[in-house]
Write a structure and sequence with these properties.
The structure is a homodimer.
Chain A lengths: L2 E6 L7 H16 L3 E6 L5 H10 L7 H25 L4 E4 L6 E3 L8 E4 L2 H8 L3 E5 L2 E3 L5 E3 L4 H17 L2 E7 L20 E3 H9 L7 H10 L3 E5 L11 E4 L13 E17 L4 H11 L4 E8 L4 E9 L3 H15 L3 E14 L9 H12 L5 E5 L2 E7 L3 H11 L5 H6 L7
Helix pairs in contact in A: 1-3, 2-3, 5-7, 6-7, 8-9, 10-11
């Protein structure tokens, strides 16, 4: 008997009707003979409401108290989902993160799952009861409530599946969303965008890190590490269909070997911080990125280039929302090391092409730049990894760039996936 | 250094402004050198909102899930109060019932405090930090969240004070309300009603059981058992005043010896269940009250009277809201034992006079009935205890009866307390 962990986001549990629709996926999976564990986020905009509530008393609330406050959002959801399942005749029991055995470190609001004790879940599953687990939260060793940060419910779902895979030999994870899978590009931006039947963990990781909001990158990382198959599904889709949604897999199947580019991803609200004319002394990089890491601010890409003998330009991109904190750090480091200037630009986006096949194909970047040149999109910066190429462009150029690249790599047609290398040998 | 447990109800923590006003009582007590523990209820009407939310999915929610749901109300409050204290420069830390070490039995929605581990509170108090404890909730031995039922935050506050009295030698409890103490009668009903400086636990217990909503009877019982002094105070009153509010004390002071009646209490929404013409066989009483107790429905007064040879009438009063469940029990028992009729009346109130001095005074009931006769209030039933006399009247007569009794026992004038026995010897 296999174990399925079904995760429902905030919109899928926003009210009684949506709760019932989500609960029907649980019933369908049970009818197919699966043992089901449910993981839920806070209802609708509850987390935002709680954040606003805290801000009525202080602009910078203590992180521990915020976790105590925010964790109530998921605690409400699990009770509501358990009640909903019970009204549909399904034995169910709600569990907070702590009750589900999820232990984290003490980094409040950005905690990392350290361990998971499956005792409570096993007891319920073996008694035929559906455990409904609060996503996004856990408890640190001292007994304080912690949260995993935004998108943390995906991480909870994968962590639960990984641990139960250990116990039962296999477990899969289904992430229910208001989209029906992973697309070759955002369909609102690129009209010809197409759902992918499968992507690799690494492709998904790149896409998630680059701004695809389908699934949280930490969850994908964990799924990759523990080999948990994850399927992204639409919450209104019929339950139990194996051809629905998009499957995240570890290894590329034979047919996928030839795929070079699988998707185009746009990330908006990007800021760029640039320290110009820095003396290239030992420690200059860590003078910048040490404090940034300590403040737990995620940096996207880092570029370092020469700027004359012994002098460098150090540039990095990050979320525009984090610019306030980073500005002070960059200016302090710039002053300490004698930078000629510290520049901050905020009106930017990154546009990336991602594909497992790039590990072996050549000429992909060249083809990308030619397409952008023909479209007349100015490129501000370029960074690459093994399976992606990213460019920084002005915010206003991002959508046009995405459409042009989606066309250039023929992502709108299924056949193009296998055929594309032929056009990439330039 | 003495310990003060300050309890703030829902209206005292309803928004940022009210939270600050409540927090100032904490600061004032700290400034006087006290160690302060705060206990809070859910903000404003949050508990009602959560009950309504559960009812969107089911009319009869599972009790365990309701506790999981309702406990979030106080968890939000403790975080908000801790944040408020922090913004006012006071080190504070929120604790759920579980984190505060409050262990209960497993009777969901009506749990009883079984034990309290003071370790967490001691650690915080000795580190100069104000613990902010979620009222109304605890955890049972299996790790499930429990709640103590309506008014349970008062119980939490007294339980915390009782446990800390054990640890530190003394502790007092301050219950902040939107009234400034215990009155001789409800001032909205009786214009001449007057605040009492002190009442005994027993007087308060009778008054609370009879419908006075100043403080929860379970809390008073616990205060009596552990000898915890409790002061009822207005949340807008200046903190630290020892002459404010009403003090609940264990023993009557000399000046109080002569007090006969201290207050008049009205309880509305009373229902009366009457089994007429029951054969007086062994077990007939427990056939009725056994199932009522098992359903944990609180019964107010029980009256049994003869109805001819070997036949009795068995009558009891209870909250109108519980009539639905009790009706079925009464009818089943009535059928089983061959009662002639089972009558249920719902439009009733009880009006009671309460006073420690009744233990020794005589003629108090007679004076009460004379006053009601002169006022023309028909009495439906009478019950008495050592320190009170209660009558059941039609709902529409209740307020008039209360005013008349308040006048008859001269409760509006302070001198009357000492002088009243003079008029009671009839």
């Amino acid at each position: 008997m296999s174990v399925v962990v079904q995760k429902f986001g905030g919109t899928s549990v926003a009210d009684a009707e949506k709760l019932r629709a989500s609960a029907r996926h649980v019933l369908a999976a049970r009818a197919l003979g699966h043992r089901v564990v449910v993981v839920v986020s806070a209802m609708g905009h509850e987390t935002d409401r709680l954040v606003d509530l805290a801000h009525t008393v202080t602009p910078s609330p203590d992180r521990r108290e915020m976790d105590q406050l925010l964790a109530t959002g998921e605690q409400v959801s699990v009770a509501m989902m358990a009640l909903t399942l019970q009204t549909l005749g399904c034995a169910a029991r709600s569990l907070t993160g702590q009750q589900a055995g999820i232990v984290t470190d003490a980094a409040h609001q950005r905690a990392t799952v350290v361990s998971m004790d499956p005792t409570a879940l096993r007891g319920l599953l073996e008694g035929g009861v559906v455990p409904v687990v609060a996503g996004f939260q856990g408890v640190e060793r001292g007994g304080d409530v912690t949260t995993l940060g935004r998108g943390g419910s995906d991480t909870t779902a994968v962590a639960v599946a990984a641990r139960l895979k250990d116990v039962y030999g296999s477990a899969t994870c289904e992430i229910y969303k208001d989209v029906d899978g992973v697309y070759t590009a955002d369909p609102r931006v690129v009209p010809g965008a197409r759902r992918l039947e499968a992507v690799t963990y690494d492709e998904m990781l790149e896409a998630a890190a680059l701004g695809s909001q389908v699934i949280h990158p930490r969850a994908v990382e964990m799924a990759k590490r523990f080999g948990v198959p994850v399927r992204v599904l639409h919450s209104q889709e019929a339950a139990g269909r194996v051809d629905a949604g998009t499957l995240l897999v570890g290894e590329t199947e034979p047919a996928m070997e030839t795929r070079v580019v699988s998707s185009v991803v746009v990330k908006r609200n990007v800021a760029r911080v640039s320290l110009r004319g820095l003396p290239n002394r030992a420690g200059v990089q860590s003078a910048v990125f040490g404090p940034v890491a300590q403040a737990r601010l995620p940096v996207d890409d880092i570029i370092q280039e020469d700027d004359g003998p012994g002098t460098i330009n150090l540039t990095f991109t990050l979320d525009r929302g984090d610019v306030g904190e980073v500005r002070a750090i960059a200016q302090r480091a710039g002053a300490e090391y004698g930078a000629q200037a510290v520049r901050i630009d905020t009106g930017l986006s990154t546009v990336s092409i991602v594909g497992e096949g790039m590990r072996h194909a050549t000429g992909v970047a060249a083809r990308m730049f030619r397409a952008l040149a023909e479209e007349g999109v100015p490129i501000e910066n370029i960074t690459t990894s093994e399976i992606r190429v990213s460019i920084v462009v002005a915010e206003g150029d991002a959508e046009r760039a995405a459409r042009c690249l989606h066309g250039a790599f023929e992502l709108g047609t299924i056949g193009a996936l296998a055929n594309s290398p032929q056009g990439l040998s330039d």
